[in-house]
């Protein structure tokens, strides 16, 4: 305990970057300052590091500093390429080929690893700045970055005139589901409320637009595990709604990590279509051991005289068809080519598409900022509600803390109801709470009243307080 106190006195906490130099006698370090005060003091968190929508100009867009290649909106890319979609990753199969004896076999396609030239969403705007601020404050102040946090973003999509045929995702709310957290990772667990949360959002004209999660400073944009999580989310949300018939996902991922001054920095990403295609055909390994390297099941090509032929599973099976028995002598995996060389593993950055992000100078959120905010769901942190667990989830052992309780004390509820005016109903987290303690139909009827700007029966207040 004395060591921890001594470290805190000199400004070293969870997330501090320490640089060691063998050529000098002293240790130099860059301190991440933990100067958070309380959730009720919004000025403590500076979200202006992200570019404001109100200040975007064409010159800035042309000169914007992003790591990696520049991306075009998907429709702009199609216009330039004659609306041809046949060569796009999700229109092609990369499944391994079973080689059978005595017949002409088709070889699997080779896969060239390259940066995607287009993106399905061009910009993420955090319209509800207060919501993001509360998410950041809880992580920085309450958890002190020693436990990571994840949430679903809800909002809508709109045209973005700053990009040709551009699409903008606008975040209006963050729902924090049940989750396991530790210092390096966070995992969502089964959530019986998620379907009803989606219903509430839909009734308000919103939808799930992606996820946001915290992470400690890291040299790579997304670790391999984080990237697999992003890929899985996008793949499960693929829709065939584009006029070309090409399947697309518009789910965006936003990461939050501290800068050298302890202020949260947001970065938005999507996984490329090639990443989704490789995931679809089960070419990624079940476990990812490295941060910036993603591993696949593919093998390096060898000469055909070598018994361990490229991509061979080494197995031999018999399949019986209408004309008799056909022997499968091996299974050939696709060839992965990175910068002209065959590879098995490659850098995660190849599969990441950078999305621009911003927070408006003058937010105009659908949800008003209330005098007394409603408690966020699944944030139980006291000893009676916190469970230390060891769980094998998503193919990995995880020691962490379980957050899975939507509980509001009666005193908190009375303060919220009495401390806010008629706008108290128009709060995403309050509606989720009503759905939990009453029923989803009551929550949806309140949503209808909010949209239609009609009064809400005071009987609901009485039901909540008694």
UniProtKB/TrEMBL annotation:
Span of domain Nuclear pore localisation protein NPL4 C-terminal: 149-289
Gene Ontology CC, one term: nucleus
UniProt cross-references to Gene3D superfamilies, sorted A to Z: Cytidine Deaminase, domain 2 (3.40.140.10)
Xref: InterPro entries: Npl4, NPL4_C
Signal peptide: none
UniProt feature, compositional bias: Low complexity: 305-320
Xref: CDD domains: MPN_NPL4
TM ranges: none
One example of a Gene Ontology biological process annotation: ubiquitin-dependent protein catabolic process
Single annotated GO MF: ubiquitin protein ligase binding
Region (Disordered): 304-325
Protein name in UniProt: NPL4 family, putative zinc binding region/NPL4 family, putative
Organism: Theileria annulata
